[in-house]
Amino acid sequence: MTKFEQAGLQPFGVNPASPDSHRSYADKMRFNFPLLSDSDRTIAQAYHALKEDGKGIVRTVYVVAQNGTVRFAQRGAPPVDDIVAAVSAEEHGR
What domains are defined for the chain? Predict the structure, then answer.
């Protein structure tokens, strides 16, 4: 979280589980970022993160600027340093 905060980024998770499920999972995993519920999979569909069956989710990391521009996108779980470096490089025109 420190690296994200230093880069001015606020991470959060999105998945189709219910808010109640998120609370218990976040407590169990000791997450220090919010989890948002996408029960109808609207967000997953908009960000092309649905599997072919239309139900499963492909883990994907996006960084979305305040103006709505996608500044980073990668499937899987990229290292925090890669995410921060990509966003930082874009800000500096690299």
Answer: 2-91 (3.40.30.10)
